[in-house]
């Protein structure tokens, strides 16, 4: 009986100690929050982080991942330069009761639009903190980028000079690979991408090709999508086609089976002569671009050369001889520091000033470029023709590209058309142009002015 009483006493004491420890944990969480006396206001959080990234860095790759904890208002309440820093501190992160998100990423500053050998692994997970309790969360970061890997066929490397350039864009970021810059490319996701290849063959022929890359079903590209690209080059005109094989000596001008003799300076063989096309020559080399997405062949679109674009402005042409209104000056379109009658070469800053004292009714811009095709512009949500005063579905893209501010253009008496942000992308896409922006402004008195901004690059 005495033993039973002793056992029950020990059991009761253990329960009390456990209860005291639990109370102490809640009290500790409460008292660590300065000025807080409500024991229901504080809880804890712990993170067990994993990643699908493998083989690129030694050791535990997640140790260098950056960690952010944000509250319901998307405000950062805790931030750690690395997961190792978080793990090196206290095991439990104290937080006020509420709903949070933990963001883990392979590098700080958010995903870059385009990078080489710099994958972006990311995860965002929501969790709740309850009073006096510790929320334990296990999370795994996954690749958040579109992957592009380029392979060069022997025909390409053997045939072209070392000055070749392979340029990619997702519509906002641009990345160029060449002999000295190569590796695995990573891009922020986008509806489609563009590849542009420029090279010079060993016989001096300049070759260029651009293609749109997209998913086979037309859906937007997704994180972890991987493009494998194989580049080659071929001569579209075979050597001396149509000349029969000569079992004798084809280079002997006296050979009766070869009455024309060999090609000489007076008989060089010309691609312009259908009876004697010769050896390929300028303009007969073609770059081949074979593309697979996630191991499957995909349809590719070659941007077509721009055709003359009809005036998209739905505003009917005003009376060609409107009544003059002395109270308002006619609209004007003037280059900022340059004349629109000239072609700008290799510019970095390009602004055009538009005025309309009677107020802008419409300001239509039509893009006319050999590389800025419907498909490429569509990748960033932009039509080739748009009205800055009535942007409609183009509004979001125009704002993201910096072509439109938050204030409406309609009714304004002046507007700056600034395409400086386009210059870096255009210059790297490999097509010298000219790239034209046709501008047409109509004021509230139905008077109009039209000018064209022309830009070209030295490639």
UniProtKB/TrEMBL annotation:
Regions of biased composition (Low complexity) lie at 238-252, 261-270
Quote any Pfam family the record assigns: DUF4493
Q: Which intervals of the chain are annotated as region Disordered?
A: 234-333
**What's the protein called, per UniProt?**
DUF4493 domain-containing protein
| Lineage of source species | Bacteria, Pseudomonadati, Bacteroidota, Bacteroidia, Bacteroidales
């Amino acid at each position: 009986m005495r033993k039973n009483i002793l056992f029950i006493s020990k059991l009761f004491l253990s329960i009390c100690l456990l209860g005291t420890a639990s109370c102490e944990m809640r009290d500790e969480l409460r008292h660590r929050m300065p000025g807080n006396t409500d024991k229901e206001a504080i809880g804890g959080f712990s993170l067990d982080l994993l990643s699908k990234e493998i083989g690129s860095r030694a050791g535990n790759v997640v140790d260098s991942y950056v960690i952010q904890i944000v509250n319901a208002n998307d405000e950062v309440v805790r931030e750690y330069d690395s997961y190792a820093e978080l793990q090196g501190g206290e095991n439990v992160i104290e937080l006020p009761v509420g709903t949070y998100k933990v963001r883990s990423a392979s590098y700080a500053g958010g995903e870059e639009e385009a990078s080489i050998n710099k994958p972006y692994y990311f995860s965002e997970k929501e969790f709740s903190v309850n009073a006096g309790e510790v929320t334990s969360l296990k999370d795994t970061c996954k690749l958040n980028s579109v992957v592009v890997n380029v392979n060069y066929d022997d025909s390409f490397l053997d045939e072209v000079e070392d000055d070749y350039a392979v340029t990619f864009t997702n519509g906002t970021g641009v990345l160029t690979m060449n002999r000295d810059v190569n590796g695995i490319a990573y891009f922020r996701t986008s509806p489609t991408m563009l590849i542009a290849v420029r090279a010079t063959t060993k016989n001096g022929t300049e070759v260029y090709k651009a293609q749109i890359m997209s998913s086979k079903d037309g859906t937007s590209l997704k994180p972890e999508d991987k493009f494998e690209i194989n580049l080659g080059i071929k001569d579209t005109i075979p050597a001396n086609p149509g000349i029969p094989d000569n079992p004798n000596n084809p280079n002997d001008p006296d050979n009766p089976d070869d009455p024309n003799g060999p090609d000489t300076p007076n008989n060089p063989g010309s691609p312009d002569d259908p009876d004697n096309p010769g050896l390929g020559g300028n303009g007969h080399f073609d770059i081949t671009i074979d593309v697979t997405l996630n191991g499957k062949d995909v349809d590719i679109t070659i941007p077509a050369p721009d055709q003359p674009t009809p005036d998209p402005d739905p505003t009917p042409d005003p009376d060609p001889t409107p009544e003059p209104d002395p109270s308002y000056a006619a609209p004007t379109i003037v280059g900022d520091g340059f004349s629109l009658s000239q072609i700008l070469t290799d510019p970095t800053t390009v602004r055009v000033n538009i005025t309309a004292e009677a107020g802008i009714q419409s300001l239509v811009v039509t893009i006319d470029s050999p590389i800025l095709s419907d498909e490429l512009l569509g990748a960033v949500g932009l039509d080739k023709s748009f009205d800055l005063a009535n942007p409609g579905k183009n509004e979001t893209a125009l704002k993201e590209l910096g072509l439109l501010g938050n204030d409406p253009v309609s009714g304004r008496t002046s507007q700056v058309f600034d395409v400086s942000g386009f210059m870096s992308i255009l210059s790297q896409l490999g097509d010298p142009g000219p790239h034209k922006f046709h501008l047409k402004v109509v004021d509230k008195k139905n008077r109009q002015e039209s000018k064209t901004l022309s830009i070209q690059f030295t490639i």
